[in-house]
Each structure stands twice: as C-alpha cells, then as structure tokens.
Amino acid sequence: MQLLLLFVLQCQLWLLIVTTDS
User: Fold this and answer.
1) Can you tell which superkingdom this protein's organism belongs to (predicted)?
2) Please, how many CA atoms are within 13 Å of residue 7, restricted to the half-sphere of its CB?
C-alpha cells in the first residue's frame, strides 16, 4: 500500500518537473 503511494508521488513529481521544463 505504501509503495503504491510512493509511486504516485514520484509520478506527480516527474510530471511537475516535465511541465515546468517545457
């Protein structure tokens, strides 16, 4: 359960970086 939450957080962080980089 905790691992899934961590995965989601990583995805959100990655998306934030990608959108900011654009």
Assistant:
1) Eukaryota
2) 4
Is the Cα dihedral 11, 7, 4, 6 positive or negative?
Answer: negative
Cα 8 to Cα 20: distance, rounded to the nearest angstrom: 18
Chain segment 1-22, per-residue pLDDT in tens: 899 999 999 999 999 999 998 7
Q: What is the pTM of this model?
A: 0.50
Give the integer Cα–Cα distance in Å for 14 and 7. Answer: 11
- CA 5 from chain center: how many Å? 10
